Amino acid sequence: MNTELDPREAARGARRAGLALEGERPAEVAATAHHIQAVVATLRELDFEDTPPATSYKAVVQEDLHAAL
Questions:
Q1: How far apart are CA 3 and CA 26, in angstroms?
Q2: What's the CA gap between 63 and 14, in Å, rounded?
Q3: Is residue 69 predicted with pLDDT exceeding 70?
Q4: Can you give the pTM of this predicted structure?
Q5: At CB < 8 A and 24+ separation, what contacts does 5-10 make?
């Protein structure tokens, strides 16, 4: 997805959500959305093929047997 949100679209979406964006806020929201899209696009390019799912890890808690009670 390579569509960049413009400030008018950001303001329109905010109004639909019940939020009012005034002044420079629509441009700031659009720039932030573009940055988030760029980061997500980078993450999608990563190869996690050999990485086991998080559910396969078991947390190991070691107790300090010499700790004062």
A1: 16
A2: 50
A3: no
A4: 0.62
A5: 5/29, 5/30, 5/33, 5/34, 6/30
